[in-house]
Amino acid sequence: MKDIFVIFFVCIGTTFMLLASIGLIRFPDVFSRMHASGKAATVGIASLFIAVAIHFSELSIISQIILIITFLFLTAPLGTHMMAKAAFKDPQKRPPVFYPKPATTILPTPAPAAVYTDEEIEPEIILNTEQSKSDSNVT
Predict the structure, then answer these.
(1) Does this model's pTM top 0.70?
(2) What is the DSSP string of 78-126?
(3) For helices 2-26 and 41-56, what crossing angle results, to 10°?
(4) CA-based angle 90:94:98, to the nearest 5?
(5) Where are the domains of the chain?
(6) pLDDT tens-digit profile of 57-85?
């Protein structure tokens, strides 16, 4: 039973690490790449360490792995933030557009509404709800 959990966490960890690696290759700019490496790699390494803790099941190893995972979750966001701050200050590393244009320039103009003549549509307007109730009772 213990082996099933170990295999599960190893598979989860390697999948996240693979996705982080693909994200580093495929994403276009620095900020997207940092997001892939910061999020997926952290979860992948933590999953692998959890698998190691389950496999060995010793108190000394589990306590060390808990400290490692805590240190990892505390320092990885700080490192990613510092790299993003440095990349933001460098104009060559910025993506071309930070804020989208207003919606009026992006969205196409709506199609004109259909035009009907009075002969085609004869609307029934009921102004008084009491009158409509009494009319329905009579018929």
Answers:
(1) no
(2) HHHHHHHHHHHHSGGGS-S-SSPPPHHHHSPPPPPPP---TTT------
(3) 160
(4) 135
(5) 2-93, 103-138
(6) 999 999 999 999 999 999 988 888 888 88
